[in-house]
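Dear colleague,

Thank you for sharing your sequence with our group. We've completed the structure prediction you requested, and as agreed, I am returning the results in plain text so they can be pasted directly into your records. Please verify that the sequence below matches your submission; if there's any discrepancy, let me know and we will rerun it promptly.
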Amino acid sequence: MFNSNILYMVRCLYLLLFITLFSVPIFSQTAVLVKTFNINGSGSCARMRLGDLNGDGRLDMLMVQPTSETPSEVQMLTAYDGCTGQKLWQVGTDNGLTGTDRDEPAQIWDINNDGKNEVVAVMNTKVVFLNGATGATLKSFNMPAGYETLHDYVTFANFSGGPAAQEIVLKDRYTKAIAIDTNGKVLWTYSGITGHCPWPCDVDGDGKDELFVGYSCIMANGQPKYPAPINVDHPDCIYIGDVDGDPSNGLEVVYGLATNPSTRCVNIKSGKVVWTNSDRKESQQIILADFRKDLPGLEVYGMDRVNRTDEDALFIINGQGTQIWEETPDNSGWLTAIKLIHNWDGTHTPMCLAHKRGGGVMPEVRDGTGKILCHLGTDGNAIVGDLGGDDKEEVAVYSTTTVNIYAASQFDYTQPAPTPGKPFKQTKFYGLYSRYGSGDVFETGQVRTAQGPVRAAFAASGASVVKVTGRRLTLKELGPNKSALVTLFDLSGKVVYRAAVRSSVVDIGGAMGNGHEVYVAKILYDL
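Please find the predicted structure tokens below.
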């Protein structure tokens, strides 16, 4: 009897050990701090941009300090090497600003399409192009006459149908926008509701961008594609994608509004409202992605300003407009900001970063059910990007003096870029920064409706066809001493990469376009 009791206790201990070991979540409770940089001297109230400034294949950091007026110009720019933290250059002088709640008209972009990134900013009533590596002025011109105050935000679009987005869009706070070329010539003007973060996107596949500004879809010639379907207040943010998961009816655009119903979805093909959601009071920030693989379409992750005193709350709405999760407000604060993480852990599973939560709550990484996967060790302003050059995304949390870089797991942050010396091509995700946040998501439905050669690739005899969303393609079926022919298509059917390879991991970052687009790879093994 005594021995059987001991045996029973031992079995219970083994069972407890098994549960303890195998019930640990995939993520640790705290994200890993992989690097800290000193950015003292970059100016008060500066916000960060990410882009490869020095052409080494890694993302660098640009701190942007605004002037004090509304809308702001840029007071000072300070660039840091994203790998070493070394200051690269500084332009302007610190104005000691004590607070700002606006965007700053500065972005990192290859504005002259020479393969190297420049900094485009509005400073001293001029549009300036600065050399990304040195900060030297490459070009400057006066703001167009009559539009001198349209510098609340700057973005870029391809209205000409050329090889890259080289037209510039500027706007004031709420009512006007202009499109200009790289010499300052006005291409067209817009008057009406602008919202905070207009977004360019080629939604009809003609090689020219449309501009989603306010509730309007403006074509490349400056004319509206359809009458604005909403005409209340203004949208804080805009996200475009195949929201309902039905490629036959085209894409949708989701708006986050300051007026209830504060989340609304519009079909881009018809210009009609698809659904509205009234569960939230003020959807001040939204992000769109396939957060839930088990549900059709895409999901809207949002942040609701419950009241502008001490409460906000996160929420999730499915592709059909139904709220499927909400956070209970806890009076900890109302200044939460959210960011989209495309690839935190290497699985390319979208996640949501929530920071500046208030009440001592540290920044959180959450999954598509609202579950907190991990916390970050410091709070503050934050930005998401592949700072480590490993195809996964890290979070940089920064103050006026320090940048802390957090990752899902430990790695060697000083490792060289995947292709050292080859510039990291700037994307819309990095290059069209706004504190409010807008974007586009090209996901599963678009692969099914991709044109010509892409559809043919799916039917190719003996070919393996995969969707590509990262900078590296893994050839899982490549045997020893074998090779494969890899052909990479964009969704218009254009071949952007083709090579015979022997490595099981192929770096295709140089072929990626200006955005977090989806590509299709046709792989013929054993050549």
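Summary note from our side: The helical segments are 2-22, 428-431, 444-448, 452-459.

Kind regards,
the structure core
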